[in-house]
């Protein structure tokens, strides 16, 4: 009995570690697909559409009798939840990764616990007592997270590991060209950081709103179905407005197709299902506390698979 209870208590912890590993894999594959020229808005449409199709049988067949009745007010909430949880968050995330790297995306994820904590306190989902040591630690953690996110965006630092160093040692560009390339990379890094910060803000709003909606409507799979259904519609409208070239909608059967399939199955279905369950069991702040875990995983995967240099400031 004690072992069973211990395992149940450990399940949310292990679940969120798995989620962070899946999200890092998603960001890495996304960066590889974007490097080949895939449009991030088109990427969103295909991954959300496939996620909707996966949840479709569950919505219409499996939990049809068990789920509570839907109302127009609930559908509006699902629409807004999808706006922050898929359309804005994914668009800013994939655009930010395209400008920077998966390592920066994971490092800036440290903003999420801080933003979520502030939102949870504002909406009275977390109690804040300045005389309580737990509240003081959370406030200090919030300030450190925000300061760290600013440093990792602005400060680059010397390279610790550079897989491309040997290949470029004998073909170094001229000092003028090298300076221009470094300036462009620095600008892209900051632009990517801004987009990723917007993605983190959107994700924090989603996780906080998700916790509130789960109390009103406890059918997790129904919420996830509408999350991706409305997300597909919203992303399609955004993609049509941002991308006018029909050839951008053609997916090549290589890393582009693999990344879309991975995002749909492991990002949309597995990761979001586990996150929704953890938010329901432990609350929004618990679910986002694991974001720092992804930093080490992302640094390793980006260096190994994408050939990114690892800098001390990141």
Compact description:
Helices cover 77% and strands 2% of the residues. The protein contains 12 helices and 2 strands; from the N terminus they run ααααααβααααααβ.
Features:
314 residues, mainly alpha, 2 strands, 2% strand
3D architecture notes:
This protein has one domain (18-163, 174-311). Helices cover 77% and strands 2% of the residues. The chain has helices at residues 2-35, 40-62, 72-99, 102-108, 111-122, 133-154, 165-169, 175-216, 220-242, 255-282, 284-288, 293-306, and strands at residues 159-161, 310-311. The chain has a two-stranded antiparallel ribbon. The relative contact order is 0.23. Mean pLDDT is 77; it is low at 165-172.
Q: How far apart, in Å, are the first and last alpha carbons?
A: 45 Å
Contiguous uncertain segments of 5+ residues: 165-172
Question: Using DSSP, what is the number of strands?
Answer: 2
Tell me the series of helices and strands, N- to C-terminal: HHHHHHEHHHHHHE
Strand order of the largest sheet: 1-2
List the helices and strands and how they pair.
Blueprint: H1 2-35, H2 40-62, H3 72-99, H4 102-108, H5 111-122, H6 133-154, E1 159-161, H7 165-169, H8 175-216, H9 220-242, H10 255-282, H11 284-288, H12 293-306, E2 310-311
Helix pairs in contact: 1-3, 1-4, 1-10, 1-12, 2-3, 2-9, 2-10, 3-8, 3-9, 4-12, 5-6, 5-8, 9-10
């Amino acid at each position: 009995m004690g072992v069973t209870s211990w395992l149940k208590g450990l399940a949310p912890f292990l679940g969120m570690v798995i989620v962070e590993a899946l999200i890092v894999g998603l960001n890495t594959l996304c960066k590889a697909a974007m490097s080949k020229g895939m449009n991030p808005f088109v990427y969103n449409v295909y991954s959300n559409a496939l996620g909707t199709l996966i949840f479709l049988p569950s919505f219409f067949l499996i939990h049809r009798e068990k789920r509570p009745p839907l109302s127009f007010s609930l559908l509006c909430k699902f629409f807004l939840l999808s706006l922050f949880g898929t359309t804005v968050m994914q668009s800013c995330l994939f655009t930010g990764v395209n400008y920077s790297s998966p390592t920066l995306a994971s490092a800036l994820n440290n903003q999420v616990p801080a933003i979520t904590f502030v939102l949870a306190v504002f909406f009275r989902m977390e109690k804040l007592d300045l005389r309580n040591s737990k509240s003081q630690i959370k406030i200090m953690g919030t300030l450190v997270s925000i300061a760290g996110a600013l440093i990792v965006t602005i400060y680059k630092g010397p390279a610790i590991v550079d897989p491309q160093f040997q290949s470029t040692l004998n073909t170094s560009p001229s000092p003028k060209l090298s300076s221009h390339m470094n300036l462009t990379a620095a600008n892209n890094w900051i632009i990517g950081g801004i987009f990723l910060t917007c993605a983190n803000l959107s994700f924090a709003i989603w996780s906080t709103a998700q916790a509130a909606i789960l109390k009103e409507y406890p059918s997790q799979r129904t919420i996830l179905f509408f999350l991706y259904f409305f997300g597909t519609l919203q992303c399609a409208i955004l993609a049509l407005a941002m991308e006018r070239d029909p050839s951008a909608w053609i997916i090549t059967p290589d890393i582009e197709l693999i990344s879309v399939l991975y995002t749909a199955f492991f990002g949309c279905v597995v990761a979001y299902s586990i996150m929704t369950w953890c938010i329901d069991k432990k609350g929004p702040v618990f679910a986002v506390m694991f974001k720092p875990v992804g930093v080490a995983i992302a640094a390793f995967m980006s260096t190994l698979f994408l050939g990114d240099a690892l800098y001390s400031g990141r």
